[in-house]
Amino acid sequence: MAGGRRRILVIAEQANPDWVSVPLVGWSLARALAKVADVHLVTHVRNHAAILRAGLREDEDFTSIDSDAVAGPLWKLAERLRGGEGRGFTILQAAGALSYPWFEHLVWRRLGARIRAGEWDIVHRITPLSPTASGALARRCAAAGVPFVIGPLNGGFPWPVAFAAERRQEREWLAPLRGLYRLMPGRGRMLRHTAAIIAGSHHVASEIPAPLRDRVVWLPENAVDPARFTRHPHRPDGVLRACFIGRMVPYKGPDMLIEAAAPLIASGRMTLEMIGDGPLLPQLRAQAGALGLDAGLTFHGWIAHDRVHEVAGGCDILAFPSIREFGGGVVLEAMAMGLAPVVVDYGGPGELVTDATGWKIALTDRAGVTRDLGALLALLADDRAAVAARGAAARARVLQHFTWERKAAQVLLVHDWALGRTPRPDLFGPDDSEAAA
User: Fold this and answer.
1) What confidence score (pLDDT) does residue 429 get?
2) Which domains does the chain have, with CATH numbers?
3) Pairing state of beta strands 122-127 and 38-44?
4) d(CA 296, CA 269)
5) CA–CA distance, 286 with 302 (Å, rounded to integer)
6) CB–CB of 129/97 below 8 Å?
7) How far is CA 170 from CA 89, 159, 239, 341, 392, in A?
8) CA dihedral sign, ordered 331, 313, 226, 406
9) How far is CA 109 from CA 39, 136, 140, 188, 392, in A?
10) CA-CA distances (angstroms) from residue 314 to 153, 244, 271?
């Protein structure tokens, strides 16, 4: 290690400081690691301009790879097949999985000699997060004697059977076939040559072949920059203030939330801030109007990521009944602002929220989720002390475990393990032993 600092080659095909979701995860984790190690970032050329604006130097700090000769046509085909913006996510993932091996081939062509020469102590693929994306880089790094780490891998939660109508609305006709990726020979070779596998969810961990599960450690994909999500003073009494943050699409359940909250809003016991845009927005406005919710419910539309706290930070709870959420970054962001989250107990949110930091609703069917959500909101409107206590505990949990600074330290522990210097790390300690099992 040069100067006592670890040298890390970070592979993040998606890494962009100007975007959200997966590209923001790739960028944020890469930059957090760069504060504690010598990091060289490898990413797609589409991120080149944004990374230059962020102050990184090409070739010295990062390398951009142009794989569009293969990725471009597949992406265009997927766009035609998905049936509209914001739909057919699994189709896009399939296109990405087919094109990604070419990206890793180009990475090796560009940097393989430097990897073989030992320029980096470890190679870590952060994005794609999808476990369906395989490549030959793990095998080539292993042959060069350089440990390869992958993750956090996340995604692929099965569609809840009771929400088949929402799956059809989302044009997710390919989703039932997703599990076939486990039969692809490239996946098995990649995992066998990987020194450590970071699973962003228990579901992904369960999909790793049994003989390789001793290489798995659980670490959710998301984290927050606490400086971007400030906490406003919370009142222990008065109207319950709730918000929803996310795209207005069927699987995130904004229509269920409006229906569940309608009696409380109409009676003046609750207000609801709807933050986000999407194809359901006109339908949601009509729904609110039909329910007589002109007062007490506000549709803010799209708000820039760095300004969401200006609205959400003044709320008491995040009401987020998404029925198929992989990571749940918005849940951590709300918790960082001191909001108590109310989520469906499935996917990423169900793993991030504990009984001490929020509330979880059982995943049943549409009528059941709506009914249970409404009953819970009514209880919270009458127990503001419990809301304040769990909101404070939520913020404390995020600051302890889920900042990017903390995540970089957790990843370095995984790297120590991959290098054979330490046992497999317990990243969350005894308080989270059940979650990390």
Assistant:
1) 61
2) 2-223+403-436 (3.40.50.2000), 226-400 (3.40.50.2000)
3) unpaired
4) 9
5) 18
6) no
7) 8, 11, 35, 25, 35
8) negative
9) 19, 12, 11, 22, 50
10) 33, 13, 11
**192 contacts: CB under 8 Å, gap ≥ 6:** 212
Joined tokens for residue 359: 């509330």
CA end-to-end span of the chain: 32
Cα dihedral sign, 384-387-389-392: negative
- Please give the order of strands across the beta sheet that includes 317-320: 297-301, 270-275, 240-245, 317-320, 340-344, 359-361
Rg, the chain, Cα only: 22
> What average pLDDT does the structure give for the chain?
92
Q: Which two tokens stand for residue 97?
A: 């999985």
Q: CB of 9 within 8 A of CB of 42? A: yes
pLDDT at res. 49: 98
Beta bridge partners of 343: 320, 360
Average pLDDT for residues 247-274, to the nearest whole number?
97
Read off the pTM.
0.92
Residues 6+ apart with CB under 8 A from 196: 147, 149, 150, 151, 215, 217, 414, 415, 417, 418
pLDDT level of residue 437 (50, 70, 90 thresholds):
very low
3-class DSSP assignment, residue 360: strand
Q: How far apart are CA 240 and CA 269, in angstroms?
A: 6
pLDDT in tens, 337-390: 999 999 999 999 999 999 999 999 999 999 999 999 999 999 999 999 999 999
Instruction: Please count the other Cβ atoms lying within 10 Å of the Cβ belonging to residue 54.
Output: 15
Helix or strand or coil: residue 122?
strand
263: which 2 tokens? 């009696």
Indicate whether 436 pLDDT > 50. Answer: no
